[in-house]
Amino acid sequence: MLTDSDKKLVLQVWEKAIRHPDCGAEALERLFTTYPQTKTYFPHFDLHHGSDQVRNHGKKVLAALGNAVKSLGNLSQALSDLSDLHAYNLRVDPVNFKLLAQCFHVVLATHLGNDYTPEAHAAFDKFLSAVCTVLAEKYR
Ligand code: HEM
């Protein structure tokens, strides 16, 4: 559960994150490199460094997270369609959501540096965990 102070920190992190419009693609590139098994969901993508497909997909993921940041009080509703898509159509194993969350933390740390304080990291981790939980909700 995100406290009011967590929510404030999440908004602050997000404001800084979106100054780096490719940070979604960077997180995806880290995901594919660090956890190569995740590439099996994207057989139709060019996954090489600098790929336009990964860049565009990163923007979509970032936009979805931005939408979630705006709906911190109601994540289930905000992410409902995306949850359906990942569970029923794409059948992404939910363990992979956590792997992508880890990669986002690393990307945020590289861009935000000292601004990604332990408190900001903890709050953003709660947020990403909540997103992962909602994305995995429909598997039950
Ligand atoms: C598609 C968000 C995690 C695999 C998408 C789309 C969004 C999105 C916004 C595009 C939906 C559309 O075009 O209508 C997210 C978010 C995630 C997440 C917010 C977690 C924080 C993952 C993970 C995987 C994955 C971990 C697999 C390792 C896919 C695939 C597509 C997709 C295969 C379809 C790509 C295409 O063909 O264009 N996701 N995703 N997603 N996602 Fe995710």
UniProtKB/TrEMBL annotation:
<dbReference type="GO" id="GO:0019825">
    <property type="term" value="F:oxygen binding"/>
</dbReference>
<keyword id="KW-0408">Iron</keyword>
<dbReference type="GO" id="GO:0031838">
    <property type="term" value="C:haptoglobin-hemoglobin complex"/>
</dbReference>
<dbReference type="InterPro" id="IPR000971">
    <property type="entry name" value="Globin"/>
</dbReference>
<dbReference type="InterPro" id="IPR009050">
    <property type="entry name" value="Globin-like_sf"/>
</dbReference>
<keyword id="KW-0349">Heme</keyword>
<protein>
    <submittedName>
        <fullName>Hemoglobin subunit alpha-D</fullName>
    </submittedName>
</protein>
<keyword id="KW-0479">Metal-binding</keyword>
<dbReference type="GO" id="GO:0046872">
    <property type="term" value="F:metal ion binding"/>
</dbReference>
<dbReference type="GO" id="GO:0043177">
    <property type="term" value="F:organic acid binding"/>
</dbReference>
<comment type="function">
    <text>Involved in oxygen transport from the lung to the various peripheral tissues.</text>
</comment>
<dbReference type="GO" id="GO:0031720">
    <property type="term" value="F:haptoglobin binding"/>
</dbReference>
<dbReference type="InterPro" id="IPR002338">
    <property type="entry name" value="Hemoglobin_a-typ"/>
</dbReference>
<dbReference type="InterPro" id="IPR012292">
    <property type="entry name" value="Globin/Proto"/>
</dbReference>
<dbReference type="GO" id="GO:0042744">
    <property type="term" value="P:hydrogen peroxide catabolic process"/>
</dbReference>
<dbReference type="GO" id="GO:0072562">
    <property type="term" value="C:blood microparticle"/>
</dbReference>
<dbReference type="GO" id="GO:0005344">
    <property type="term" value="F:oxygen carrier activity"/>
</dbReference>
<keyword id="KW-0813">Transport</keyword>
<keyword id="KW-0561">Oxygen transport</keyword>
<dbReference type="InterPro" id="IPR050056">
    <property type="entry name" value="Hemoglobin_oxygen_transport"/>
</dbReference>
<dbReference type="GO" id="GO:0005833">
    <property type="term" value="C:hemoglobin complex"/>
</dbReference>
<dbReference type="GO" id="GO:0020037">
    <property type="term" value="F:heme binding"/>
</dbReference>
<comment type="similarity">
    <text>Belongs to the globin family.</text>
</comment>
<feature type="domain" description="Globin">
    <location>
        <begin position="1"/>
        <end position="140"/>
    </location>
</feature>
<dbReference type="Pfam" id="PF00042">
    <property type="entry name" value="Globin"/>
</dbReference>
<dbReference type="GO" id="GO:0004601">
    <property type="term" value="F:peroxidase activity"/>
</dbReference>
